Amino acid sequence: MDTDPGQGKKSQSPPLNSRHIQKLTLINSNQPIRPSSSRSVALPLSHPSLLQPHPPATQLTRFQNPFSQTIFTPINLILFSLFLIILYLRLRPSKPAAATLPVAPPPTVFKTFTPPTLLPYNGTANQPVYLAVRGRVFDVTPGRNFYGPGGPYQNFAGRDASRGLACGSFDADMLTEDLGGPLDKLEDLGGEEMEALRGWEERFTEKYLVVGKLVPVGHPEAEEE
Predict the structure, then answer these.
(1) Domain for residue 163, yes or no?
(2) Residue 181: CATH number of its domain
């Protein structure tokens, strides 16, 4: 307690707090006084900046990659899906067509013909085209364009074509007029004509089916038919 010399009374000093005691201690110990650091402001825990949640990762990605916002739109995704569907429909393997077996031709029955019974097989009325060469009847329907109606050899359809083929003539006078008479025996033909006839016969044998034989009217085999 100090004494005031003017008044003769003792003056009471203010009490020292902990901060003053620390300063006095530093002065007495001859230690340098450190300058106080910059004042830091402590934010209360209820500050709005601390309570605001962090943005989700998806939002950050959008902000970082704005190009994705123009590509991955619902309309573009729908169009891309349609493109994939169309591409699949075009590139997928087509289903194999059901195998269809060719229709077998009706069985051929070997028959005995006479000139009158052979005549209807001339290609008219949806009939097959037959002709006879040296007693054998050939089915020349596959060559209807040549031997059927309107073809260059139509005179031979349904007839004995032996003499016309041997002579290289397709005229009607090469045919037998009397269908009920005997067959043409070709006895007046020469060697070259018979050779030509054999060539035609071999050609028909290789290309067409033999469906019967030709006999004259009244022949025993014709009666059996």
Answers:
(1) yes
(2) 3.10.120.10
C-alpha to C-alpha distance for 201 and 132, rounded to whole angstroms? 10
Tell me whether strands 136-139 and 130-133 are parallel, antiparallel or unpaired: antiparallel
CB-facing half-sphere around the CA of 127: CA atoms within 13 A: 17
Residues 198-225 have pLDDT tens digits of 999 999 999 999 999 999 999 898 766 5
Domain assignment present for residue 127? The answer is: yes
4 lies in some domain: no
Tell me the two tokens of residue 177: 């007029």
Tell me the average pLDDT across 157-178.
92
For range 63-92, the mean pLDDT:
76
Mean confidence (pLDDT) of the chain: 77
